[in-house]
Amino acid sequence: TVNVDTSTRFTLSNDTFICSIVPVKLDATITGAINPNSLTYTWTRYPMSSPVPASGTGTAFAHPTVNPTVPTTYYCTVSGGPCVFTDSVHVIVGNNIPVNITIDSIKCFGQSTAHLHAVLTGGVSPITYSWNVGGNTDSLINQPIGMYIVNVTDAQGCSGKDTVIVTQPSALSLLMDSINIPCFGQNNGSISATVSGGQPNYT
Questions:
Q1: Tell me, what's the pLDDT at 195?
Q2: Three-state SS for 37?
Q3: Contact 78, 84 (CB under 8 A)
Q4: Cα–Cα distance between 37 and 30 in angstroms, integer?
Q5: Would you state the pLDDT for residue 6?
Q6: Which pLDDT belongs to residue 58?
Q7: Beta partners for 91?
Q8: Is 114 exposed, middle or buried (0-12, 13-18, 19+ CB in 10 A)?
Q9: Signed CA dihedral, 92, 149, 151, 135: sign only
Q10: Residues 6+ apart with CB under 8 A from 194
Q11: Residue 140: what pLDDT?
């Protein structure tokens, strides 16, 4: 019988973004039956010009603070238990917070049902939001067609911006056409319906 330990999990911080030279805390977390304080945490980085976090045994080495000046990938290898774990985290150093507006589109002509959500892939909390149509949260609901701009600012003073256009389907149109029965008692007439606009497929 081969027993495989599936209870132990290793997680590393999510990729993050900074736009100024500020410290960033990395978190290497072990969950499961292993005592994390008995493990060895070995850190490396790329590029080599960035400072490398200290390595050693015990959870004191699991949560280093780094201060990169260029985009840097940090690698952590955890050993000393029955398994060896390795993961990486990328710290982006730039000028603008990456922000992307996702849209749940309007389904029918004339409705105001669009939902918009500003998704950030970096920044330091708290984040402030400012929409050109009013609103100071990360989402807008029940919006009509138009242009939407969100400006975001984080606790460092870093900013980001995204713009989207919300559209709608054209109005639904139904055109009926028919051919009359030429003589009494015959069954050779016809009728057809042509639909345009809206959202295909039609039923």
A1: 83
A2: helix
A3: yes
A4: 10
A5: 61
A6: 92
A7: 16, 72
A8: buried
A9: negative
A10: 174, 175, 176, 177
A11: 96
Give the type of residue at 68. P
- Distance CA(102)–CA(117), nearest Å, equals 5
Q: Divide the 203 residues of the chain into consecutive groups of 10 and give the mean pLDDT of each group.
A: 66 84 86 84 92 92 92 93 90 86 92 94 86 95 96 88 94 84 81 81 77
What is the reported pLDDT for 162? 96
14 SS3 class: coil
DSSP string, 108-135: STT---EEEEEEES---SSPEEEETTS-
Q: Which residues lie across from 129 on neighbouring strands?
A: 152
Whether 114 contacts 144, CB under 8 Å: yes
Give the start-end residues of each E strand in the chain. 9-12, 16-18, 24-25, 28-31, 40-46, 56-57, 65-66, 72-79, 85-93, 99-104, 114-120, 128-131, 139-143, 146-153, 159-166, 173-179, 190-196
Contacts of 70 (CB under 8 A, 6+ apart): 47, 49, 50, 93
